[in-house]
Fold:
Amino acid sequence: MSKSKVMGSTLIIAGTTIGAGMLALPLASAGIGFSTSLVIMVFLWALMAYTALMMVELHQHADSQATLHTLAMQILGKRGKWLASFAMLFLFYSLCAAYIAGGGAQFGQRVAQWTGIEMTGASGTVLFTAIVAAVVVIGTATVDKVNRVLFTLKLIAMASVLLFLAPNVTQSYLLSMPIEQGLVVAAIPVIFTSFGFHGSIPAIVRYLDGDTISLRKAIVIGSAIPLVIYVFWQLVTLGVVSQSELLENQGLSALIGQLSTTVQQSSIAQAIGIFADLALLTSFLGVSLGLFEFLGDSMSKKHSSRIVTGLVTFLPPMGFALFYPQGFITALGYAAIALAILAIFLPVVMVLKARTAYTDANYQVAGGKAGVMACAFAGVIIVSAQLLITAGVLPALG
Structure:
């Protein structure tokens, strides 16, 4: 297997993982401190890398063009396929709702800064959604061209933010401990969502021709790159703004404002704002395109014009954002439930069944049945945490 293909696959996994969920990490970690969030991040990275390797094990038993739905149908039957489809739809809508809720407010502020025209939060949300919807409905090629430019700018802005914030880190801020034990559990679903990349695994399997060694290398390294970047991001955000300030001013806009105010440099303030905008926009473009294509394939040809599909794609999450303008963290928490189904429970059930049905596997993830069951237990904790937040038992974040 060529090194360039492995490197490309590694970067695809890293790029898929790093998105707007990164902006939620300091908000989710505000009440638990840096050291506790670090432990949670390392654990969740290991969990997601392990279940991704389980998907590699499963792909041995299917055609090279197999998707998650194909695998679920082959191993679990129609019920498995419908469960995978429902979870995929739930995940896409939850992420789109989160990105519209976060990006709409940001967009309104940018319009006011650049043009002097004041916009209400609702107007900013509608206009932001309409612009992205237009790009997606026009076609994938347009999304590709726009996304390449935005992704490059995002990397430059992210590097600038990390470099400029680093000298302002205060060690005492990083030593903050959880102010409430319930916040530790409540932070898990949002942090978990930041490590999702499993939707790209079938494409990587095809690209690397199912070569197990190359796939393992791409998955482990590709998922570790975001972990390293997230650690630095947590260092320069939780280390620049005190825990009390983060807790008093929750929300994405408040976080950006606090970082800008603390550093007191106009150039870095602009870089922070640009990075947040681009992170939301690139993630929203990618996820909404995935949802648009998914719905386009699912809807009957009679009703599947691109405009109709676009309305079905964007109106529900926009409605959520209009009713819950501060719902960025809330929507990411709900996305964790769907991601747990897709990235944990489905692989666990399929692996257990496949190991009984197929005895000629060339590759099997280390850890045996105990490792698989440990993943299932972790998935139960993640879903339970979000359900307890919804029920009001655990404190809500953001």
Summary: The chain has a mean pLDDT of 86. The chain has 17 helices and no strands.
